[in-house]
Design brief:
The chain has strands at 4-10, 17-23, 29-34, 41-49, 54-60. By secondary structure, it is mostly beta strands. Strands 3-4-5 form a 3-stranded antiparallel sheet, with no helix packed on it.
C-alpha cells in the first residue's frame, strides 16, 4: 500500500469536493484540516486496516450542539 494517498472528500459544511493527501505511514490519526473552498475546519479520523490493506477516512464537521 502507498504511504501517501490522494483522496477526494465532500465537505460537510459547503458540499464541495476537497482533495487531500493522507499519510498512512503513522497508522491511525485524528486531526483537523481546512476545506479549500469554504475554509471551515474538517475533523478527520483515519484508520489503517492492515488486513484489508486500505485506509479508512471519517470526516466530521464538529458542529454538533450540546444542550
Amino acid at each position: 500500500m502507498k504511504k501517501v494517498q490522494n483522496v477526494t472528500i465532500t465537505c460537510p459544511h459547503c458540499g464541495h469536493p476537497t482533495h487531500l493527501d493522507l499519510d498512512a505511514s503513522n497508522g491511525d490519526q485524528d486531526y483537523y484540516e481546512e476545506c479549500t473552498n469554504c475554509c471551515q475546519e474538517l475533523h478527520l479520523k483515519t484508520h489503517l486496516d492492515e488486513q484489508k490493506r486500505r485506509l479508512n477516512v471519517d470526516v466530521d464537521a464538529d458542529d454538533e450542539q450540546f444542550y
